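Supplementary Methods. Inverse-folding protocol.

Structures were first reduced to a discrete structure-token string of length 141. This string, shown here, constituted the complete conditioning input.
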């Protein structure tokens, strides 16, 4: 398999369905080696196997909850140990917990912010460290 992203290592959070899955398919079609994140270990493993079969690229599942700082740290430690390289991070994971504004519970607010906002910072911090160790440039926009 050859493509524009041949040899690049990519982590995509929230890759088991929807936009994350579509993003993963595009990266795989261009030859990138993928680490796919999701919270359901069986589902993300199934998606990784299907992506490998469809595109012939390395596609590994990485099951962790992006809203849990310790889980994010452990996942990036695994990435560092196993690959020592990360070229692209796609912070895609997110949740929607529908409720009427007057009925939203504190726990729902905290969970939504942890998953949709804080996780982006957690993952970006560790990705930047990994990219810098590998000699890559990191920019913030």
């Amino acid at each position: 398999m050859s493509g524009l992203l041949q040899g690049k290592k990519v982590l995509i959070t929230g890759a088991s369905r929807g936009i994350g899955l579509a993003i993963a398919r595009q990266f795989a079609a261009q030859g990138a080696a993928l680490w796919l994140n999701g919270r359901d270990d069986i589902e993300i493993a199934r998606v990784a196997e299907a992506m490998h079969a469809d595109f012939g690229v390395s596609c590994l599942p990485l099951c962790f909850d992006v809203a849990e700082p310790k889980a994010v740290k452990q996942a990036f430690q695994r990435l560092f140990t196993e690959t020592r390289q990360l070229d692209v991070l796609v912070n895609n994971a997110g949740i929607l917990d529908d409720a009427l504004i007057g009925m939203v519970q504190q726990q729902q607010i905290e969970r939504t912010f942890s998953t949709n906002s804080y996780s982006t910072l957690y993952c970006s911090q560790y990705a930047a460290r990994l990219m810098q160790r590998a000699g890559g440039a990191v920019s913030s926009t």
